[in-house]
Amino acid sequence: MGYYTPDGNSEYQKPKKRGTANGLKWVAVIAISAIVGSGTTFALIPALKATGALPTSLVPSAVQQTTDSSSVTPVTSSQINVTVNNGITKVFKQVEPAVMAVVNYGQVSNTFSQSSQLQPVGVGSGVLFYKKGQFGYVVTNNHVVQGSAKVVAVLSSGKHVNATVVGTDPYTDLAVIKLPISDVQNIAPAAFANSDTIQTGETAIAIGTPMGLDFADSVTAGIVSAKSRLMPVEDPQSQQTLDYQAVIQTDASINPGNSGGPLLNIAGQVMGINSSKIVATGFQGMGFAIPSNEVLNIANQIIQTGHATHPSIGIDGYSLSSLPQPYWPNVPVDYGVWVQKVTSSEAQKAGLKANDVIVGLDGKTVQNMADLRTYLFQHKPGDVVTLDIYRGSTKMSLKLTLGSMASPNTTVQSQSSGQSGQGSSSDPLNPFGSGQFGG
Fold this sequence. Notes:
Elements: E1 4-5, H1 21-31, E2 35-37, H2 45-51, H3 87-95, E3 99-110, E4 115-132, E5 135-140, H4 142-145, E6 150-154, E7 160-169, E8 174-180, H5 181-184, E9 203-208, E10 218-234, E11 241-250, E12 262-264, E13 270-278, E14 287-291, H6 292-305, E15 309-312, E16 315-319, E17 337-342, H7 345-350, E18 357-361, E19 364-365, H8 369-376, E20 384-391, E21 394-401, E22 403-406, H9 412-416
Parallel strand pairs: 1-2
Antiparallel strand pairs: 2-13, 3-4, 3-6, 4-5, 5-8, 6-7, 7-8, 9-10, 9-12, 10-11, 11-14, 12-13, 13-14, 15-22, 16-17, 17-18, 18-19, 18-20, 20-21
């Protein structure tokens, strides 16, 4: 299926410059990627009109008469008032004011003048989720704001508001920005659902800014296709896999620009934050959202400290089922997480060894990396957990004290302003210790 390729910093189209060839080319480029972040693209309708792919008007210029008008009895029309107020309409009206476009400005070099200037380089979405004191707080994706020197929020009213990046977390692809309270005083923050109670098959509604600002406040709908799909989280610049994340799968249309926008249930509650989709020949309707419980956990940490702190086991590991059977250790199970290497003093002290297979955490069965990550992230650094493992044919339990890692800020704006959130680990790209935790 390939690798996760966020496009939050893709080239940005100013709304006034419509229908460029670059927009069409960019769509073709992302179409060959396996998994893409849903960050930014150009407006396409003007270009399609110019090529004749779309009609410039839906009203026919002339209607050919096929009968003698004198023999036709005139038909009169009457005014019919229709009130559309279904569930999706209600949700959109309720939540749309809290959803906004998030524009990433970066330093763009001018090859002729050998200088650089601040220009918009990417557009995503965000949703207001909290207000306190002098600020309103908006959650979005890390890949939407990564590398930004400046961030501007475009409200549903069309107003442009300078935003400040509070903090980012590349391991979960989440970020929080804040706006002056005066600009969001009359906007109600979106309510969040308990993502543990999400049901496969329930209605899923996405609101965001697909295809750039010309398509702001777009709504699409589908269902929750699956829960806890294990997907890679990659650094948009280095393409290094940082983590594996259990996400919500939906067939609600998620396109470039939807990144950071909400995935809602029929009650208008945020089930997740849209982050990526699969784009490949033969694949349709496979978008993904970060579950709301994880979003709130990380966002609240960022508001409080400027960064998110993750519990750390300190291993290199893979889902046993992802390994070719000839490489399996000699254990009596076909599930769990295989420990390739122990990389932290906490894990060594607990007694973990290479080739152990983790099959449980605090009494919960660990089938794969998704399970281990989900259970692990329910804890905080310093917690003592019980790992059930197989060492060969022998099953045993080990007590392990979780280590910690703080996520780094990934924006130029945050780093230059001295905000907190810089990781202190010698390996800032891995929340689980010095080796990669995932497979």
